[in-house]
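chain below, 405 aa
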Amino acid sequence: MNRKTYTVTELNTYIKELIQRDGELAVVFVQGEVTNLKDYKSTSGHMYFSIKDDRSQLPCVMFRGDRAKGLDFELQNGMEIIIGGTMDMYERDGKIQLYAKKIKSVGDGAIAERYEKLKAELEEKGYFDESIKKPIPRYVKTVGIVTAKTGAVIHDIQTTAARRNPYVQLVLYPSAVQGEGAAEEIAKGIKRLDKEGVDVIIIGRGGGSMEDLWAFNEKVVADAIYECNTPIVSAVGHETDFSISDFVADLRAATPTAAAELTVYDVREVFDRLDSYEVSLQRAMETIIRDERMRVARAAERLSAHSPVHKLEVSKEKLEKLTHQLKTSALRIFENKKNDFINIATRLDAVSPIKRLKSGYAFVSDSEGSAVTGAAAVNEGDSLTLTMSDGRLVTNVTEVMIDKS
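prediction:
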């Protein structure tokens, strides 16, 4: 069997993608003892350490920004803690580690236990099944939003939606997003917008600690999402934050801005596509018109070839041709006959008696007008008439002399 040979980078990238696709590793809570804690106060402020139990240890990192929000005490080696965070791989070093978002000392792990317990319960009931996820409409007209009426979330969604498609209507249901009663308000907003018939609903808030995001981890919100007929996009916290609502929703967005980009189509792309369709349609119509014109022209040629007018024109041309040929033939025959007549006339003229008479010859006839063809036919005393070119002579024969030679 042929096996693919990976580069180190390709294999690390593949492992990283496997980890990121695993929902169980998106939000994990791990308990253990702090060890290998590096001095973070004199460097970048990022915290690098490990946690261990009696058999294993796990590399951890907590970035400075997360430390400011998710750690309210000074971490020390040997402490027993519970970390809430995300498993991921640092590709450059090929190092799988836990990216800590929240750290509590042991005794504060009740919230993590509640999260894991509710997540397992809802997963068992099928709330997370991909088969029940509703598709997000491609072209929406109205977007419902459940979030605080002021703040970065609604501003980011409004700005992104206006940039992508100013024709889409945004319907805000203002709700508390943290604190007592927030979960109930969020659930109420989902149900209200579902009845209003919007095309898609975005629920969300900005980043914060697990306690800040907890309203989106309540069962009342999960139930409202699960029972909603309208597709829901969950955009809670930052990219690395995962809430129960993210798992139940039809689509999870890393940020509220991403949620707006995923739900509001870019009208400029539609206009560009329409322009492309217009050009294609125009070219198709020009091709059709050209083909039809050629077809009509060929049909006209065939019709013209069989029309009475065309046949009359052809017959007229044939008649004119035959008339010309007849005239030519007649002239040729006339010339031939004329030449024949001249030849005959010439020959006749050559033997013409009149012409001979003019040469001094005479026509001899007897008294009865019969031609005398020889001397033997004449007797002495006969009266003869000599016809000449300019008259006649009457004479009597006094002597007949016959040439005996």
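The CA atoms of residues 375 and 401 lie 7 Å apart. The mean pLDDT is 86.
thats it, cya
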